[in-house]
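[Discussion] Sanity-checking designs against the backbone

I'm trying to build intuition for which residues belong where. Below is a structure token string of 474 positions. I'd appreciate it if someone posts a full sequence so I can compare it with mine line by line.
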């Protein structure tokens, strides 16, 4: 199967065909840097990082841009409240954003443009919109005239009459229509400003994404992503601006992730029902949070609960432990040759098919767990026939291979994962081995029995002992 994605624009799953063969140009709406981001915001950052890696894994040359909104009402309000400049606030939280994405194991985007670095291009595009009749100036502000853009509503499926009725609530007599939105805002006293043909001011939020994405990815690019809440008005407005200012289609595929909810409500800063990524990372390894998201399809809503996080942790531990046990076993069976395992090859094809089917990580994870289960069965039965060793080797290769895009198996050297349980279990196993070798049976047996009572089995080999989790008992 070739890669297919659900396109919000056409409301269908479509075959993915990039503008340029083998290249993918992809843009994600990034953070507004006025605070630490919460784990709801982490969802698109993690999922589209995995998509980017997956597309690379599938042989595409991916150019990935995630913008940074470093001028906005929220930043200005925070700066006023803290008696600082907007730029100080933005700099502080831009740094925090990079620290957090690094900790989450998210690869840095190829480009992370800041709105304030694109002021010239933004002003030029606004001027183009005015010249082409899509925008008009009003007392130092510039508005986009929604009715002038024939395709307005095509992404969100809203029609102009409906929108007009809805927009009446927000009456601003000066605008030609209540639906019109600001692309340039004149500065109020004390606010940051940039010189423009319409006086001192700053850009609206929507225009920065149209300008930076078009500028950095070319006239028409492949994938534009963000959370579902951005479909309207943000992405609808991005299309109106980009296509109003040029003659080419803006984006081919629009992808939107579902919400992370908490007690049935969207996790959000304004509702106060959020956990920052930092809070979660203080308690759980990054790989657990990645796993938590990967276990669900990116378009489905997810309910946050600590139990779900713990379940994700257990699921991940199972994979990591299996890998470790396979490694220990394979160390004793060096010469398995180059035999291939057809069943595992088929399961790998099924996993890739799931990923190709609108990036179904949940289903791909299902296949991964089946593989882990087969490996554990062989290990639990100590059934190390040549055939089974080939199978274990194939499973190991597969896990390592798909980790290229999932990014869930921690780097052994990083010590970010397994520092708790696995670390102590390794240590106890070693201590018991020494006791046993020193014929101190009493203490050695006590350790073995106590571990057994919590579902950990020890197995004594020729020159070492290993521990295994007994999943049937636990
Ligand atoms: P914001 O800071 O609200 O502009 O959000 C930044 C990104 O996070 C956008 O792509 C939002 O759609 C996304 N986002 C915000 N809240 C959530 C949530 N609770 N679940 C999933 N995505 C979210
Ligand atoms: Zn955007």
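Best answer:
Here's mine. Compare freely.
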């Amino acid at each position: 199967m070739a890669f297919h994605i659900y396109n919000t624009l056409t409301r269908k799953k479509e075959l993915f065909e990039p503008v340029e063969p083998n290249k993918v140009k992809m843009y994600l709406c990034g953070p507004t840097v006025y605070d630490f981001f919460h784990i709801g915001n982490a969802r698109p950052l993690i999922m589209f990082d995995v998509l980017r890696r997956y597309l690379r894994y599938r042989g595409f040359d991916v150019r990935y841009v995630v913008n940074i909104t470093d001028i906005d009402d929220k930043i200005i309000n925070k700066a006023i409240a803290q008696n600082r400049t907007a730029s100080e606030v933005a700099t502080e939280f831009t740094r925090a954003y990079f620290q957090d994405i690094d900790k989450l194991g998210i690869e840095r985007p190829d480009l992370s443009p800041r709105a304030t670095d694109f002021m010239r291009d933004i002003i030029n595009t606004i001027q183009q919109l005015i010249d082409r009749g899509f925008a008009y100036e009003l007392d130092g502000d510039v508005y986009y005239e929604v009715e002038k853009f024939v395709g307005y509503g095509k992404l969100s499926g809203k029609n102009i009459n409906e929108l007009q009725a809805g927009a009446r609530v927000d009456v601003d007599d000066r605008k030609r229509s209540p639906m019109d939105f600001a692309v340039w805002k004149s500065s109020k006293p004390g606010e940051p400003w940039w010189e423009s043909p319409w006086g001192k001011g700053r850009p609206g939020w929507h225009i920065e994404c149209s300008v930076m994405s078009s500028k950095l990815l070319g006239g028409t690019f492949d994938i534009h992503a963000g959370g579902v809440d951005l479909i309207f008005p943000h992405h609808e407005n991005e299309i109106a601006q980009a296509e109003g200012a040029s003659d080419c289609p803006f984006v081919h595929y629009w992808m939107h992730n579902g919400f992370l909810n908490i007690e049935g409500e969207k996790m959000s800063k304004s509702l106060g029902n959020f956990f920052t990524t930092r809070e979660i990372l203080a308690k759980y390894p990054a790989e657990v949070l990645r796993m938590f998201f990967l276990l669900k399809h990116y378009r489905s809503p997810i309910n946050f609960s600590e139990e779900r996080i713990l379940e994700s942790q257990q699921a991940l531990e199972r994979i990591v432990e299996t890998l470790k046990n396979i490694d220990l076993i394979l160390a004793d069976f060096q010469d398995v040759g180059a035999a291939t395992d057809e069943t595992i090859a088929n399961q790998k094809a099924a996993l890739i098919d799931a990923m190709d089917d609108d990036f179904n990580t949940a289903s791909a994870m299902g296949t991964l767990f089946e593989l882990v289960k087969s490996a554990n069965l062989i290990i639990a039965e100590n059934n190390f026939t040549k055939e089974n060793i080939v199978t274990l080797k194939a499973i190991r290769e597969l896990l390592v291979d798909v980790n290229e895009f999932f990014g869930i198996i921690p780097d052994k050297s990083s010590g970010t994962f397994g520092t708790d349980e696995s670390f102590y279990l390794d240590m106890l196993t070693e201590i018991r081995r020494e006791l046993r070798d020193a014929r101190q049976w009493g203490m050695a047996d006590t350790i073995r029995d106590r571990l057994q009572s919590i579902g950990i089995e020890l197995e004594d080999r020729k020159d070492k002992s290993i521990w295994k989790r007994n999943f049937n008992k636990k």
